[in-house]
Amino acid sequence: MIKxxxxxxxxxxxxxxxLVSRVVRPRFRMAVAALxxxxxxxxxxxxxxxxxxxxxxxxxxxxxxxxxxxAIVREFFEETGMTIEPLNLLLADSSRHFHHxxxxxxxxxxxxxxxESHEISEIQYFDVDNLPPMLFDEKxxxxxxxxxxx
Length: 150
Description:
- By secondary structure, the protein is an alpha+beta fold.
- It has a single domain (2-149), classed as Nucleoside Triphosphate Pyrophosphohydrolase.
- The chain has helices at 2-11, 14-24, 68-80, 136-149, and strands at residues 29-36, 43-48, 55-56, 59-61, 83-94, 100-111, 120-126.
- It has a four-stranded mixed β-sheet, with helices on one face.
- The longest helix has 14 residues, at 136-149.
- The protein is globular and about 40 Å long.
């Protein structure tokens, strides 16, 4: 049922999705995100089932009383069946477009194999110079972090 609702949600224009999100969600949210690079400097991206621009970084919201590191490990596992280890906090970023702050962690995959979920249909490593169509904020973040790390 959730898969069907997410596919229907994807049909709506971005302006409508943003409007509904702002009305339904709390006024301010805290999010976490994981940047996972392989040994060749490629970034791991998720193909989201509910987005117009499907490819993006692994991310999600914090639950009440949840620690940020625990949240990104939980989100990653729920969406992929894989376990990650947050290595360090890269930055705290206040979104220019939404009412939330994201804590971005550099992470590595430590266990598991990808299992499709109702939110994520595919994962893939991409060369930073050849990223798929995705949200500009995420693309800018990836390029900036990659430049600093490699």
